[in-house]
């Protein structure tokens, strides 16, 4: 069946090959580049970005080679509100957000998809490394090192019903080779890294500019003041470097951020083993199938490309309780907990609280 497909083209190799595959499959494909900054020079430049003028030009050249219409859509205001401001407010609240996950949730599969549907398109095609079956089941991509099912798990079944991920059955090396065969100039273009809207990669300075300096204490688990900070928002659970502590631990071992309290503007540090977490409380669950009626045994991934843990997940009135089979370290509120059964995504939720031992 021929579909009208809107191909989101970032200017990178993945989205270019995804658009080419959709067109080769016989679909009526239109390419679109999302302009996510009202001032592209303020976002990342060169090979490290995904929101630059260079990327827009690369996407247009790829569309010309593929032979599909191409447009640039201005989504800068929506991106700033839903991704950039969310990023800042989450850090201000002592949480650690994932802006790429939020971009998928709010921009690519909300703002972009809604506009596509209003214009009569049947699906949005992206270059994510994930597999989507005809039954709506979302699975990991075959390239474990590039799998992006984690950042797609926030999408609802209704959104996934209008999504296409043509790259999920191929490795990154295979995609680059295919791009070269197709004559796409982006075949060797480096992948983007870090956060696209932080121009120099300095997250601490970016947050300080928007939230201002807010000095406060750094304390150990016993409440002893061991240092000072200029803003608790600049820290994340599990962080070891850049703590600038005034005195070493009595045992001489490295200390890690254990907790961030925006209410008291306090950062708590301690030994690595104090980061061990066995119980996670998560909120705002999204299920990609029927919600379980009781506890289920499954696996959970707690950060993009992070380790997978066996667990028991139990829905509750407030969200979801996840009890890990083995402790995890550095689990930060604000990140996503994505549940899997093998390579199949069951659902996701946002981490709200953690505990060291089961109740």
SSE order and pairing:
Blueprint: E1 4-8, H1 13-24, E2 28-35, H2 53-66, E3 70-74, H3 76-92, H4 99-118, E4 123-125, E5 130-132, E6 138-140, H5 149-152, H6 157-160, E7 163-164, H7 172-181, H8 203-211, E8 216-220, E9 225-229, E10 256-261, E11 266-270, E12 277-287, E13 296-301, E14 308-316, E15 319-328, E16 336-341, E17 344-355
Parallel strand pairs: 1-2, 1-4, 2-3, 4-7, 8-11
Antiparallel strand pairs: 5-6, 8-9, 10-11, 12-15, 12-17, 13-14, 13-16, 14-15, 16-17
Oligomer: single chain
Shape: globular
CATH architecture of the largest domain: 3-Layer(aba) Sandwich
Biggest sheet: strands side by side, in what order? 12-15-14-13-16-17
The residue ranges in which pLDDT falls below 50 over 5 or more consecutive positions are: 44-49
GO molecular function: tRNA-uridine 2-sulfurtransferase activity
Keywords: ATP-binding, Cytoplasm, Disulfide bond, Nucleotide-binding, RNA-binding, Transferase, tRNA processing, tRNA-binding
Region (Interaction with tRNA): 146-148
Family: Belongs to the MnmA/TRMU family.
């Amino acid at each position: 069946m021929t579909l009208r497909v809107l191909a989101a083209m970032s200017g990178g190799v993945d989205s270019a090959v995804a658009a080419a595959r959709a067109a080769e499959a016989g679909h009526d494909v239109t390419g679109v580049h999302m302009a996510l900054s009202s001032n592209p020079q303020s976002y990342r430049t060169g090979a490290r970005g995904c929101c630059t003028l260079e990327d827009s030009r690369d996407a247009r050249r790829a569309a010309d080679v593929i032979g599909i219409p191409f447009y640039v859509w201005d989504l800068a205001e929506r991106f700033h509100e839903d991704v950039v401001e969310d990023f800042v407010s989450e850090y201000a609240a002592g949480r650690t957000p994932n802006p790429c996950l939020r971009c998928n949730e709010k921009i690519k599969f909300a703002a972009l998809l809604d506009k596509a549907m209003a214009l009569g398109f049947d699906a949005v095609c992206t270059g994510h490394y994930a597999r989507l079956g005809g039954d709506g089941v979302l699975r990991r991509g075959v390239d474990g090192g590039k799998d992006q099912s984690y950042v797609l798990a926030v999408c609802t079944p209704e959104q996934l019903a209008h999504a296409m991920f043509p790259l999920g059955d191929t490795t990154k090396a295979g995609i680059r080779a295919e791009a070269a065969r197709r004559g796409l100039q982006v075949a060797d273009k480096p992948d983007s890294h870090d956060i696209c809207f932080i121009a120099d990669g300095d997250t601490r300075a970016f947050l300080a500019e928007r939230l201002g300096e807010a000095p406060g204490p750094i304390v150990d688990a016993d409440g002893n003041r061991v240092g000072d900070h200029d803003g608790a928002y600049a820290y994340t659970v599990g962080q070891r470097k850049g703590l600038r502590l005034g005195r070493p631990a009595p045992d001489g071992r490295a200390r890690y951020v254990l907790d961030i309290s925006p209410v008291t503007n306090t950062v708590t540090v301690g030994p690595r083993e104090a980061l061990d977490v066995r119980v996670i409380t998560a909120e705002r669950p999204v299920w990609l199938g029927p919600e379980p009626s009781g506890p289920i045994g499954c696996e959970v991934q707690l950060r993009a490309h992070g380790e997978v843990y066996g667990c028991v997940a139990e829905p509750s009135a407030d969200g979801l309780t996840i009890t890990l089979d083995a402790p995890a370290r550095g689990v930060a509120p604000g990140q996503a907990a994505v549940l899997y059964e093998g390579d199949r995504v069951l659902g996701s939720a946002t981490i709200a609280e953690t505990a060291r031992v089961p109740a």
